[in-house]
User: Fold this.
Amino acid sequence: MFRIWAKLVKDTRFLKDTVICNSDYSQSRTTMIFNALEEICYQLDLGKPIWLDATVQDFKKHSKARFTQDNFIEHIDFDFLEIQVIEE
Assistant:
């Protein structure tokens, strides 16, 4: 099962978190990540963040990415959204 953990952090504290599960391995890993991020944004009532080059590189290296204010078009009320693959 493919699982991604997402958490909203402000001042080193978790505001909200969620885990998205996907067992449909007919999709590519990239598609599963994008679909999970879309579901995360829906559940946490956020606009979709933009994948900057630095974000993509961090995700490729560590299977973890942080989306800060630079990644969002609208103003956010938290320091960052972090997503991490916890099971593949």
